[in-house]
Amino acid sequence: MKKKFGIDIDGTVTHPATIIPYMNKSFNVNLTLDDIKDYNLSLFLDVSEEDFSKWWLEHEALIYSESPLAEGAKEVLVQWGKEHELYFISARSIHLVKETTDWFKLHGIPYQHIELLGKHNKVNQVKKYNLEIFLEDKHDNAVMIHEECKIPVILFNTPYNQDPVPDGVIRVNNWAEARSWIEHWLKT
Hints:
About 30% of the residues are buried. Strands 3-2-1-4-5-6 form a six-stranded parallel beta sheet, sandwiched between helices. Helix 2 (about 50-65) packs parallel to helix 4 (about 95-105). Helix 6 links the parallel strand 4 (about 135) and strand 5. By secondary structure, the protein is of the alpha/beta class. It has helices at about 20-25, 50-65, 75-85, 95-105, 125-130, 140-150, 175-185, and strands at about 5, 85-90, 115, 135, 155, 170. It starts with a strand and ends with a helix. It has two domains: about 5-15 and about 70-185, Rossmann fold (3-Layer(aba) Sandwich); about 20-65, no CATH class. It contains seven helices and six strands; from the N terminus they run E-H-H-H-E-H-E-H-E-H-E-E-H.
């Protein structure tokens, strides 16, 4: 039976370290993903949040266009795309629809719907589309979606999302673990 999957894009489908080389070059630092312990990236640079936001607005389209896939994501998503409905819900700014859909086409990632919100709260979209499971990398999003929508949320483990999670938010280290957990869930 087809299920409706909700899936975040950045840090979930794309590699969570995508932005780091751009930050290193622009800000003359040498960060790795292990250094990033918070979702607020300006904390790791000698710049204000405002200056980081300006930098981000100048670079986001290029970064999103060049984002590498997370390891194993394509194979799993292509398989799921044959069996289920895939709704990609992202905090990306709405003006980046073309870059986003072009990236999906370039990488051969199937989807029923892509929605760019320009904000992190995805609860309304989960409810609107009656999504039955969600895949995410942002801790507070994962917890909020699970608690308000009463669905399981797969949280891709990263150094920036290590706060405790409630039952129903399932940590995985990679797409193979996500596929395994979801295959089990589908059988129950």
